[in-house]
Specification:
By secondary structure, the chain is of the alpha/beta class. Helices cover 35% and strands 13% of the residues. The longest helix is centred in the last third of the chain and has 23 residues. The protein binds N-carbamoyl-L-aspartate.
Length: 336
């Protein structure tokens, strides 16, 4: 794999037995809040074993005969495709349901949809919903494993896991690192999941945003807050840029996107304040020229945005494997 220089390790993990070896006892993956360091490392190690050159060999079909349903109540291209590919690589039957365009439009409730899906007996539901908490609610009503692919502005756990693996492959252990998360933190499920994960892993987290784009209870995240981007970026190892989530904004949170770029957009000048080897990340989709200068997004020496996408498939393979392994009764008690 081009560009990924941190050496892959042999973790001695046997595919499909995540639940057997593991500190993995969860039926669902709903968020990073409360997930332990040991569990996070376990997912990352398993994902690591799925990355890279397979010399023409296929992945082990540990999900053969299993059914994965992608249930997206909100539009998505990259996350849905990433889960679809992850499921197919491991041999699952994958069904994509764009619920936003189907029964829900006809007035069906979330719980009716859940019961309908449940009756089809899937093994895993991957769910995205525009309301915070909806995925958890759905998980309480079905018999199969549920993975949260993003709920409102609450959590997006697989994005945080793939970000963590991208960083670990480039920079090694996360507890040595300073990470700045910049931009629309108020509306960002990616930010929340990353804050939980990074805190658990012992990284130093800084939040860089105007007051209007921070949650009112921001102190409870245990991260330093900066309103001046140059100060916030000083000597950081990792810069995570977030999209201005215009679709979640009611009213005006920023004067204009042009002014926003001037103060909070990542450009060469602001980047000079970070460490000279600081990595630039973005979960996508990007608003070029709004939160990030186009030339930095494409700078192969600094930006790892494409690697995030590549690593994302491996992380989702690991997540699918772990939740189905747990259900197969490989030893652990299911805790969620
Ligand atoms: C993120 C999301 O949907 O929360 N994107 C993604 O998962 N690819 C971030 C965003 O929409 O800005």
């Amino acid at each position: 794999m081009s560009g990924l220089s941190f050496p892959a390790r042999d973790h001695g993990l046997r595919s499909g037995t995540g639940g057997a070896r593991a500190p993995w006892r969860r039926r669902h993956i709903l968020g990073m809040d409360g997930v332990s360091r040991e569990e996070i490392e376990h997912v990352l190690d398993l994902a690591e074993s799925h990355i890279g050159d397979r010399n023409g060999e296929r992945w082990p079909e540990v999900l053969g005969g299993r059914t994965l349903m992608n249930v997206f109540f909100e539009n998505s291209t990259r996350t849905r495709t990433s889960f679809e590919l992850a499921g197919k690589r491991l041999g699952a039957d994958v069904i994509n349901m764009a619920v936003g365009t189907s029964a829900i439009k006809k007035g069906e409730t979330l719980l009716d949809t859940a019961m309908t899906l449940n009756a089809m007996r899937p093994d895993v539901l991957v769910v995205r919903h525009n309301e915070s908490g909806a995925v958890q609610l759905l998980s309480e009503k079905v018999d199969c494993a549920v993975i949260n692919a993003g709920d409102g502005s609450h959590e997006h756990p697989t994005q945080a896991l793939l970000d963590a693996l991208t960083i670990r492959r480039r920079r090694g252990p996360l507890d040595q690192l300073v990470v700045a998360i910049c931009g629309d933190i108020l509306h960002s499920r990616v930010a929340r999941s990353n804050i939980f994960l990074l805190n658990t892993m012992g990284a130093e987290v800084r939040l860089v945003a105007p007051k209007t784009l921070l949650p009112p209870d921001v102190e409870r995240f245990g991260a330093a807050v900066h309103h001046d981007m140059r100060n916030g970026l000083r000597d950081v190892d990792i810069i995570m840029m977030l999209r201005l989530q215009l679709e979640r904004m009611q009213g005006s949170f920023v004067p204009s996107t042009r002014e926003y770029f001037q103060f909070y957009g990542l450009d060469r000048d602001k980047l000079l304040h970070a460490r000279p080897d600081a990595l630039i990340m973005h979960p996508g989709p990007m608003n070029r020229g709004v939160e990030i200068a186009s030339e930095l997004a494409d700078d192969i020496n600094r930006s790892v945005i494409r690697e995030q996408v590549e690593v994302g498939v491996a992380v989702r393979m690991a997540c699918l494997e772990l939740v189905t392994g747990g259900l197969a009764g490989t030893g652990g008690t299911v805790v969620e």
